[in-house]
Amino acid sequence: MSGMAVETEALVKDFGGNRAVDGVDLRVPAGTVYGLLGPNGAGKTTTVKLLATLLRPDAGHARVFGHDVVRDADTVRGRVSLTGQYASVDEDLTGTENLVLLARLLGHTRPAARDRAAQLLDAFGLAEAAGRQVKNYSGGMRRRIDIAASILNTPDLLFLDEPTTGLDPRSRNQVWDIVRAVVAQGTTVLLTTQYLDEADQLASRIAVIDHGKVIAEGTKGELKASVGSGSVHVRLRDAEQRPAAERVLATALRAAVQLDPDPVALTATVNGHGTDLGAAEQAARALAELARAGITVDNFALGQPSLDEVFLALTDRKGPAA
Ligand SMILES: Nc1ncnc2c1ncn2[C@@H]1O[C@H](COP(=O)(O)OP(=O)(O)OP(=O)(O)O)[C@@H](O)[C@H]1O
Ligand SMILES: [Mg+2]
Prior knowledge:
Bound molecules: adenosine-5'-triphosphate, magnesium ion
Strand order of the largest sheet: 6-7-8-3-9-10
Structural class: alpha/beta
């Protein structure tokens, strides 16, 4: 599929005096995972609800596959599916019962509903738990059944609102695999998350949202590059030279130097302070200073900043709340 799955212009949503979405412009290319990244209260869920026609915008426009979310709300509803932050399956029903019921509501015949339920439970590693009540599922199983419920009919656009919040690393990986599988089948995914590594893992483009506004947008590489910093990791031949190396790097880069647990290793931030040199050039000069001071470097690496660093630089706070 080509074109845009989502386009918004100056989208606004007020709750009383509180402007939850404050002029959001988004363009989500079809067939991709797009990450909407932001801390608690940033306006992620509200944006998703506007796009899913669950809320009406107070100003601006939003189109889903070219259809206006207000004027063509029914058409939009037919093409999207939402896995909410607070999900919708019935706790007292079993996994199978939930999926069959929802498939029946979507118009599948009973045999077709049973087939689709079994197929999804199997694909999501829930076959063994299929006959158990959902209230007895673990958090990870629960999240997987939520996503399964939202793709009973393969939607063109799937909203995943914080699909892995509160999951352990293994369950998060399982959900990530599911997202990748869904996209491989042609569905566009709009993913909201507070986790930078999640956006990094899944999304091809990311919008960083804070206080209802998009404060940065681009590919992961563009976002990292826009912060204009990186870090240089250095390994020395001789641990005794580390204090000297620390002083040289701190002076050359005008930045804090971190001593790694490995006694021969150091990491320094390359932040461009006081210079307009690129990160690579600054790092190269710092390495030359080490050589001049008689310090032997075994190897070094110049890393891009992590998305965490990007987020901190953009929002200028202590990062997303837990
Ligand atoms: N139905 C509502 N009525 C009043 N205020 C609301 C409503 N829904 C959201 N808000 C407010 O709008 C702002 C944005 O909320 P939203 O749920 O979109 O944030 P979020 O980015 O999804 O946060 P989180 O990461 O905590 O889920 C918050 O200040 C919130 O209190
Ligand atoms: Mg939310």
